[in-house]
TrEMBL record, chains A, B:
One of its GO terms (biological process) is rRNA base methylation. It is an enzyme of class 2 (transferase). InterPro entries: Alpha/beta_knot_MTases, PUA-like_sf, RsmE, RsmE_MTase_dom, RsmE_PUA-like, tRNA_m1G_MTases_N. Transmembrane segments: none annotated. This is Ribosomal RNA small subunit methyltransferase E. GO terms for molecular function: rRNA (uridine-N3-)-methyltransferase activity. Pfam families: Methyltrans_RNA (PF04452), PUA_4 (PF20260). It catalyses: uridine(1498) in 16S rRNA + S-adenosyl-L-methionine = N(3)-methyluridine(1498) in 16S rRNA + S-adenosyl-L-homocysteine + H(+). Its main location: cytoplasm.
Amino acid sequence: MHLFYQPDIPAGTLHLDDEESRHVVKVMRLKSGDSIQLTDGKGSFYTANITEANHKKCAFEIISKEEVKPHSTFRHLAIAPTKNLDRTEWFVEKAVELGVDRISFLLGDHSERKVLKLDRIVKKAIGAMKQSGQAFMPQLDELTSIKNFIKQVQTDYKFIAYVDFENEALLKDKLVGSASNLVMIGPEGDFSEREVEMALAAGFVKVSLGANRLRTETAGMAAVHLMNLV
Amino acid sequence: MHLFYQPDIPAGTLHLDDEESRHVVKVMRLKSGDSIQLTDGKGSFYTANITEANHKKCAFEIISKEEVKPHSTFRHLAIAPTKNLDRTEWFVEKAVELGVDRISFLLGDHSERKVLKLDRIVKKAIGAMKQSGQAFMPQLDELTSIKNFIKQVQTDYKFIAYVDFENEALLKDKLVGSASNLVMIGPEGDFSEREVEMALAAGFVKVSLGANRLRTETAGMAAVHLMNLV
């Protein structure tokens, strides 16, 4: 089943944008009167009938609506984008498939990537949401410094993936169900000492993801998977 | 720390192959007398000194050896390779990073990919083993039909990722620690009815990986991660 995305349905928008319209009309060759499935990315699925099969602005009328309950655990992942952007895009795809509510992108003292264009990342996330048949589009935050992020973020439980060999705590044993959890993953060059100190002072708890040395994007994906298991 | 791979150290081979030798001599510019770290992929790390910095056949002498205990759970994942080979290569990289003992590649009734060259996959696995600092190289099996695989495989616990809405069991609740576990993931077109029946007759248990519809490679990666958590 193909799923289309129109975030503005709750605000009254009853047509698809350019790209989705082209897909409906040119690729799937659907006509006026044909039925489509939609999501607003805000927790609702819709069954709709096409009223005008325009390949730039495909209009529809809503026949029925189904609301989906949000996941009981709020899953927030903060990660420094990788030097190789493919790896970050891959992470976003997998995180959305597994289920994630918010992804924040971080700029650290040891970050190799200092700019991030969010538009490609947003497209990946939309594609993964539709492909995996979900009704929630995660919030994606613009790149921000680790310092500012630590100061401003609000959440019930905050974890920093930073291995402390003397006091090792596994993330899987520390996550708390039915609450908001945030896991912060550092850049390929790891967090700086200053950043770790700031995080601890702000109430973050140091956690390990296991015995193996994981790449940034693998650590992020494992953390998202764990947040889906609590 | 850079890790080099020579699987034949236990059989007495005391030099690196072509590619690894070139890396040591041409890229890292190491000389006779310099120290390197090695693994045989069979559970041992070695510290060695270079005795001849030859860029085609770099010879070394072993100074010390450290044996690593195998993971208490044997993690066996069987998966049908994806149409897009990048996705399968990506899966192998992530599975090895997270930790996997054996990967079997399956050809199913609904497989779109009917051939698989193992050499690129093996390279990905070696790269991931070295990058994540591990001493075990997983066994990688040539493509085989699901029918033959089901008949021949030996393991303590066998699971097939196939959602049965009337009788849903989560893989995370079914895996057994300190035993050999096998999870079988179907092709993008899913298992055929015949394949599911054969698997059940052979003692496989139907399991779900969660609420979301996951891509083949994401399902494989999630299953490997779960086997590492028990």
